[in-house]
């Protein structure tokens, strides 16, 4: 089971993913697990590779960035998985071997990342990730592209560019927070004497 999970996560191995689905009761079994974990949006209806069709207007095999961000956070930090399982899932995501051209390509030195990529028809490309500075997974990022004529290489670069923008924004926010003046309370001040 562990080898199948590792192959599905680190290599995006569709055969391994289908074998894992079998142990869960198929696509419906995975959807039931998602509902149990609090995700009322994401659904899986078909097996690999049919689920990658990405037909406009088709609700099968869909999610939203918001739903997937909540689910990833719940899996990594909530009560859905045991602590040992959370650590193992994160290790597999850290060891992702096919995500290099995406967010990892713009990650600043010292930043942590654990991610999982995906791709489908009609220009679909996506990534979910836990990342952050100082070796900590402080942020959850979910980026999905679809309906674009861009090549896979171009889509990878688009996701990397989005990631770079987010990282710059967060870094600027952090610097601003650190530089902001902080009020210091003087307990001996007359102004504080009458306050309760």
Automatic annotation (TrEMBL):
Molecular-function GO terms, alphabetical: beta-lactamase activity
Residues annotated as domain Beta-lactamase class A catalytic: 3-143
Major enzyme class: hydrolase
GO biological process: beta-lactam antibiotic catabolic process; response to antibiotic
Record's catalysed reaction(s): a beta-lactam + H2O = a substituted beta-amino acid
Region described as Disordered: spans on this chain: 177-196
EC number: 3.5.2.6
Gene3D superfamilies: DD-peptidase/beta-lactamase superfamily
SUPFAM superfamilies according to UniProt: beta-lactamase/transpeptidase-like
Family, similarity comment: Belongs to the class-A beta-lactamase family.
Signal peptide: none
Name assigned to this protein: beta-lactamase
Database matches in Pfam families: Beta-lactamase2
Organism: Raoultella planticola
Keyword line: Antibiotic resistance, Hydrolase
Ranges of Polar residues composition bias in the record: 185-196
């Amino acid at each position: 089971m562990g080898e199948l999970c590792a192959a599905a996560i680190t290599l995006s191995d569709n055969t391994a993913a289908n074998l894992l689905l079998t142990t869960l009761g198929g696509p419906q079994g995975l959807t039931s697990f998602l509902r149990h974990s609090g995700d009322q949006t994401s659904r899986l209806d078909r097996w690999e590779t049919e689920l990658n069709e990405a037909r406009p207007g088709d609700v099968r095999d869909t999610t939203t960035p918001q739903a997937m961000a909540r689910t990833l956070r719940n899996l990594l930090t909530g009560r859905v998985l045991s602590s040992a399982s959370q650590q193992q899932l994160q290790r597999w995501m850290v060891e992702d071997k096919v995500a290099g051209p995406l967010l990892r390509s713009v990650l600043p030195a010292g930043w942590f990342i654990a991610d999982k990529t995906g791709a489908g028809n009609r220009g679909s490309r996506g990534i979910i990730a836990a990342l952050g500075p100082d070796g900590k997974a402080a942020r959850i990022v979910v980026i999905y592209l679809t309906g674009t004529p861009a090549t896979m290489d171009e889509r990878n670069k688009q996701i990397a560019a989005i990631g770079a923008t987010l990282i710059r924004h967060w870094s600027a926010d952090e610097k601003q927070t650190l530089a902001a003046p902080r009020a210091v309370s003087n307990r001996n001040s007359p102004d504080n004497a009458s306050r309760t």
